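Checklist before submission:
- one chain only
- standard amino acids only
- sequence pasted in full

Submission:
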Amino acid sequence: MSPNAHITSHRKPRRPASQSWVVRTGVAGGVLSTLAVAGAGSASASANDKPTEATMEMPAFNADLATSIAQSAVATQQTAVDYQVRAQVEEALDNAKADAKKAKDEADRKAEAERKEKEKREADEARASRGGERSSLGTKSASASDDESGSSASTTSKKSSATGSAATLVDFLRAQVGKPYIMGSTGPSAYDCSGLVMAAYSQIGIDLPRVSQDQSTAGTQVSTSNLQVGDILYWGSAGSAYHVAVYVGGGKFIGAQNPSTGIVERDMSYSPPTGAVRVM
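Returned file contents:
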């Protein structure tokens, strides 16, 4: 007998080969089935999740984008309208300023032309006055030795041609001859044209307006062919006269002519007046 005959064997009995193959096949099939089911479930879940996410989020994104674009378009259009309105307003203001400047320039041009015309007229009057004075002095000098008494008689005749208030008026005016012309002055050392007329009439208690425009309408309008001593002569239109003087008889007037000549006595032919008013 073998020494190992009574030793119990610890090996497990072998299964039949066919049974082992069946077991292994079953296990593998179960695992594969499990994996297939899990994979199919995962794929199904993945497929279900992705379309759901796309269909839920994309419409919301597109709506927000459309709203933003629409708002941007409205804002852009409003900005363009505002810019156009501002441009039109600025253009209107520029046009108004240009028109105002043009009108002012035209007014200034006319005023300057009138001023130059007046200065030219006064200069012409001054030259004519100086020429007349030289001619008058020459004539007086030539005739003084021949007829001194005749000259005195003529002077007396001029002074006596006016009486009462008119004589007082003429005497005052002749006393001012030779004094300077100063614009805005009313005496006693200098006068302008209307200042002299106002001062002369104040000697006989008659108050006249200060300026020539108003003095030319201060009394009754009379013809220059029917003048009386003391009538106010004016140059220009009644109510807008630019010069005044006083008729002193004998076809003469006394007035404050201009800065070059001062206060002078002149023949009417030297500078025929436009009209006359009578206040006495």
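Reviewer check: The chain has two domains: 24-139, 157-278.
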